[in-house]
């Protein structure tokens, strides 16, 4: 109820609780760390003020429609997170002066294709391909993201570099999926795995790969 009061979906609530308290079990937290939970809610989401104001509000039909459309808004906000990661890697490629295409497919081994969020220099002559996966929610999109990266690794030519940039609190709820991507990196299926916090490393690796392919 308190999560809904400050506009958190169930999945978002689970993610932020896990991030701060190390567990998504709000019932246990309420019973064992109630004061800490309320203080955190108030510090992060201004809970007490929001709750007091909402109790005094009078709601009309328009407010009901807005509330029922909340799931659409949540989905839109989750998409913003993914687009932010895409924008970050595009800015790096642009800053290096690389030719590139975004949100497309690339051609790999035996003429097979796979989705990617950035390809250098273009889809038909892919030397470097990057997946950008940022999520603030959980669900099938995270599993789909892993599947796409696995597909990229499966069809890559030996001369193609494959990198993955992942970010967002949603991954904390899908640790098994995160481990699959990391294992691809460990096994050499992809050449790099990065987060927004390590984009400086991504920049350096992208530049090195581009130099090896005589793109800069």
Question: Which structural class matches the secondary elements?
Answer: alpha/beta
pLDDT averaged over residues: 83
CATH architecture designation of the largest domain = 3-Layer(aba) Sandwich
- Beta percentage is 15-25%
- From the N-terminal CA to the C-terminal CA, the straight-line distance is 55 Å
In percent, how helical is the residue content?
55-70%
Q: What number of domains? A: 2
Largest sheet: 5 strands, mixed
Number of helices: 10
Give the overall silhouette: elongated
The CATH topology assignment of the largest domain is: Trna Endonuclease, Chain: A, domain 1
What are the key terms here?
about 220 residues, alpha/beta, Trna Endonuclease, Chain: A, domain 1, five-stranded mixed sheet, 5 strands, about 15% strand, elongated
Give a structural overview:
This protein is an alpha/beta fold. The protein has two domains: about 1-55, no CATH class; about 80-210, Trna Endonuclease, Chain: A, domain 1 (3-Layer(aba) Sandwich), CATH 3.40.1350. It is about 55% helix and about 15% strand. The protein is built from ten helices and five strands. It has helices at about 1-5, 10-20, 25-30, 35-45, 45-55, 60-70, 70-95, 140-155, 175-185, 200-210, and strands at about 100-105, 115-120, 125-135, 160-165, 190-195. Strands 1-2-3-4-5 form a five-stranded mixed β-sheet, sandwiched between helices. Strand 4, helix 9 and strand 5 form a beta-alpha-beta unit. Helix 4 (about 35-45) crosses helix 5 and helix 7 (about 70-95) packs across helix 10. It is elongated, with a radius of gyration of 21 Å. Mean pLDDT is about 85; it is low at about 75-80.
